[in-house]
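User: Quick sanity check before I run a bigger batch. Here is a single chain. Can you write out its predicted 3D structure?
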Amino acid sequence: MTRQARRARGALLRAGRKVFEDKGYYGARVADVAAEAGMAVGSFYTYFDSKEALFREVLIEVEDEVYGELSPAGPQPEDPRARIHQTNLLYFTAFQRNVGFWRAVEESALTNPDARRVLAERRRYYRGRTRRALARWQDRGLIGDDLDLDFAAAALGAMTERCAYLWFIFGDPVAPDEAATKITDLWLTTLGLPG
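Assistant: Done. Predicted structure follows.
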């Protein structure tokens, strides 16, 4: 891809994100994206086969941004409470910053199999990451041997994700730091870790 083609594709991705945020998944049209990018509709189809293909690329970009922020550079806290709180805070902060796009994601996931597939891949990744952390803490004797690690990783992750949707998409007023502190307390209680 030439430099000019990369710039044009990037402009369409940025425009698509804005249009999806402003109009939602179903309200967004290819013509809206092309107009936002300052291009002709035909130019859109040079880079993307459909609105759905563009949405998938924007979704992956946003997911990479969010999950990339969950892996900060430098040493990670050894203390489970600090690690859980740090991860939850980063997630809530990134979610709040991208709330307009997450609205479109929620809307698209109901009927768009590709969006559901991308979200399922990311959830598997995050759940696996959580399970590995829980296994390390179990090996260190910090959490009980009787804890079902797969179920705990899935349930705690689902709780955190759904709370983010409810708090930030539906506008229940909560600051990311307060949300992270309260959710972290629930994680610790479930895992039997001291607060």
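The chain has nine helices and no strands.

User: Great, the batch can go ahead then.
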